[in-house]
Amino acid sequence: MAGCTGQVARIARAAHNAGVMDGSLDDLLAEVAAGRLSPDVAGERLRRFGYTAVGDYARLDVSRAARKGVPEVVYAEGKTADQVVGIVRRFLEHGPAVLCSRVTAEQAAALAAGVDGELEHDERSRVVIARRPGERAAAGRGVVGVLAAGTSDLPAAGEAVAMCRAMGVTVVTAYDVGVAGLHRLAQPLEEMHEAGAAAVVVAAGMEGALPSVVAGLVDVPVIGLPTSTGYGLGGRGEAALLGMLQSCSPGLVVVNIDNGIGAGATAALIARRGTE
Questions:
Q1: Which of 149, 162, 150 is nearest to 123 (CA)?
Q2: Residue 199's domain spans which residues?
Q3: What is the count of structural domains for the chain?
Q4: How far apart are the first and last CA of the chain?
Q5: 207-231, pLDDT tens digit by residue?
Q6: Which of 42, 121, 148, 186 is the most interior residue, by most CB within 10 Å?
């Protein structure tokens, strides 16, 4: 019984750290104390449903990283600088790191001034990674390749790179290797193969042909990342998206237009499975 009591106490502390709970914490703990629910099951419920509020503008899922293996991402576009800072501060109370995407220069400056921790800011991809003081990124959790068809595709590709690195995955990159000069592709693919890449993210705009080509040449999953790069009709990424969706190359899956965060998370999850 003493062991059970200790586990109940640990669950209660986890609930306190998670903030507000969906459902009755008292009922959950009573079920554990009565032996009708195991501490392991109760702990899992807490990890799945913990959340906390920031003012009246955000309700944060503070257990996503434990549940999913993917760090929390703050989509900064449409938020004020103060809101971004408040959200990041709260997340860092519950976890070691948080990634912010679509960050403006004003928001980045506010984060640098208002967050007690270590920040990495990639201006090209508009990504900021905030970590608690002394925290370091995990490493050695697999390898992913990231290709960009053209220089204009780098912001989206950079999001994927940032997400992979935040998840402890090594990234091998090659940029401006699109189908207009296909001979540029051979060496990067060989380097990714030699590095042991478990998945390849391919960012492409215009007609979006490069992911299909890559998927026909490699024996690992390819994540197509359509970008809003191009002229006229379809130039906002629609042509690239539809072209990738209509691909006849097996092993290619596609994320939404400019969704480098989603592409990076998917690739990193694949890569990490091979190291567990």
A1: 162
A2: 143-273
A3: 3
A4: 34
A5: 999 999 999 999 999 999 999 999 9
A6: 148
Which residue matches tokens 């402890």?
168
Within this chain, do residues 94 and 70 fall inside the same structural domain, yes or no? yes
CATH number of the domain bearing residue 243: 3.40.50.1970
- Spell out a b/e string for 5-35, using b for 16 or more CB atoms within 10 Å of the CB, else e: eebbeebbebbeebbebeeebeebbebbeee
Residue 86: alpha-carbon gap to chain centroid: 20
| Cβ proximity of 249 and 257 under 8 Å | no
Report field, pTM of the whole predicted structure over 0.85:
no
CA–CA dist 80, 159 (Å, integer): 21
Kindly write down the DSSP assignment for every residue of 33-73, as one continuous string.
HTTSS-HHHHHHHHHHHBEEEETTTEEEETTHHHHHS---E
Tell whether 137 is covered by a domain: no
No. of helices (H) and no. of strands (E), the chain: 11, 11
Burial (0-12, 13-18, 19+ Cβ within 10 Å), 135: middle
